[in-house]
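queue> pop job 88
queue> type: inverse folding (structure -> sequence)
queue> payload:
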């Protein structure tokens, strides 16, 4: 398995997971602290990977690896800037048969493809939907965002609501649980020591209920590096 992830977490993530990590370099149109985040730079659905057109050409070498694995790269046309909401075109959340996001600003290419595949689209207030949510399986998620919690619960998903904070992100008051983790097979990897999070017991209990494993890839505070995307 290969993973797209921030260049700043690529080495420890590769060591922890045993996967080849394709390092995402900074994208100068996004705010610096999130400019290498997978959840800001890539959205994958089926055998398609969506990304910004100019980012693709600046990093064609890593996207060619995905193409060689049988993925089609779709270059989105959404205007991009570091200012919200012009930075959330790819920040949609997939869980089971649902796609959640601030749909007005999600790339039209994603919306059209999701509809064609029969996904249910759910509009939420949180533009950083993918960042905000740890998806454990097709029916289970963890989030600190109440709009996502309410939307997923209404759709019949099991959602664990945790409190904001205890996740670092340079330049911001705090980071998000989705950006501070990734799920590979039956293991949840956290970028930092998840036991330091004040709602660790809630998170741990849900992981254990699903008979999944957890692994903290460092002993530092939990940090939002933008998650990872598997291919």
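queue> result:
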């Amino acid at each position: 398995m290969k993973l797209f992830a921030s260049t700043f977490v690529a080495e420890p993530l590769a060591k922890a997971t045993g996967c080849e990590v394709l390092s995402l370099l900074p994208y100068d149109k996004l705010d610096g602290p999130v400019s290498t985040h997978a959840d800001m730079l890539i959205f994958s659905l089926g055998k398609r990977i969506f990304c910004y057109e100019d980012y693709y050409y600046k990093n064609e070498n890593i996207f060619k690896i995905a193409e060689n694995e049988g993925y089609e790269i779709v270059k989105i046309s959404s205007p991009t800037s570091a200012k919200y909401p012009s930075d959330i075109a790819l920040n949609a959340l997939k869980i089971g048969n649902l796609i959640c996001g601030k749909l007005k600003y999600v790339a039209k290419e994603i919306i059209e493809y999701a509809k064609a595949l029969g996904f249910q689209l759910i509009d939420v207030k949180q533009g950083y939907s993918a960042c905000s949510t740890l998806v454990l399986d097709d029916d289970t998620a963890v989030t600190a965002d109440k709009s996502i919690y309410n939307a997923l619960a209404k759709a019949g998903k099991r959602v664990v609501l945790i409190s904001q904070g205890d996740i670092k992100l340079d330049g911001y008051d705090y980071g998000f649980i989705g950006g501070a983790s990734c799920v590979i097979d039956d293991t949840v990897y956290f970028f930092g020591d998840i036991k330091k999070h004040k709602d660790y017991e809630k998170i741990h209990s849900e992981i254990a209920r699903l008979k999944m494993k957890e692994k903290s890839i460092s002993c530092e505070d939990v940090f939002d590096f933008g998650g990872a995307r598997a291919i």
